[in-house]
Amino acid sequence: MLSVILAAFQPGLCHAGDDPLALYGDDHQTPFVSRDGQPGLFREATEEMLRRAGLPYTLTLTPWRRAQAEVLGGGGGLIMNLARTPARETEYRWMVRVLPTAYVLAGLAKDYQSLTEAFADGPVVVLAGTPRADEALKSGGPDRVVQVNDPQQAVRLLRGGRVSAWYEIDLRILHAWRSAGFAPESLRIGAPQQVTGSYLAANPGLPDADRVEARLRMAFASMQADGSWQRILAAYIGPERAQGVAAAAWAE
Question: Would you say which domain of life the source belongs to (predicted)?
Fold first, then answer.
């Protein structure tokens, strides 16, 4: 587990006596949150928001289930890159909507519009333990689903023609494909099967939550306005896709 103590102050914004916020994230959630070598687009955005808002914080990156348990078990926690779902709606306070998250099917031969269509042409690869894996297994059964633990394994299977499609979050697919040295234009991506919002969320008992939320939202708005959010996105998913994602977030 990585635990780093950071204090982010900006003159005129930070209140004397502010206690550090406890910020949590997954320790391996590429390209959204990761360790220092490539911190991830969501982590970079969150830390910049906190810096601009003048809010000191501690950062803990740990396995995903533990990160969620720590936030809900304490009274002052924030968690990065949490999908807003009906099951979670009342469990968290939804501070800042940062990203639209789309589940898509990516192929090389065609742009698949459904799992059924992809299964007709061959197996589908998914990341084990994800909601996409559960959905694919329910739809096609274990004989038609290849589960892997690393996005680069999925890239190799798709590139090698051993599966018809990869079912995953669109931005993760694009980042993994680019990281492997392949042009995003070689992928054919179908319409989203599901779209949710990825949030910076908080324990409902976060002290002074109204003030913290207002400052974070103002900070993110300033990042959108000056182009810094789009630049963060471009470093991970390329400038063309970054422009569309940044525009979608701005429209919220």
Answer: Bacteria
pLDDT digits (tens, 9 = 90+) for 110-130: 999 999 999 999 999 998 878
Contact 192, 101 (CB under 8 A): no
What is the per-residue pLDDT across 3-48, written as a single tens digit (0 to 9) for each?
443 333 333 344 434 689 999 998 878 899 988 678 999 999 999 9
Question: What is the distance between the alpha carbons of residues 16 and 79, in angstroms, rounded to a whole number?
Answer: 24
User: Residue 196 belongs to what H/E stretch?
Assistant: strand 194-202
- Write out the two tokens for 62: 């740990």
Q: Do 27 and 61 reside in the same domain of the chain?
A: yes
pLDDT digits (tens, 9 = 90+) for 145-179: 999 988 999 999 999 999 999 999 999 999 899 98
Structure tokens at 171: 């931005």
Do residues 6 and 85 share a domain? yes
Q: What is d(CA 166, CA 137) in angstroms, rounded to the nearest whole number?
A: 13
Specify the residue for token string 């940062």: 98
pTM: 0.78
SS3 content of the chain, % helix, strand, coil (to 5): 45, 25, 30
Residue positions counted in the chain: 252
Q: Are 218 and 53 in contact (CB under 8 A)?
A: yes
Q: 194, 216, 243: which is the final residue of a domain?
A: 194
End-to-end Cα distance, the chain:
34
Q: 42 with 198: CB under 8 angstroms?
A: yes
CB 118 within 8 A of CB 164: yes
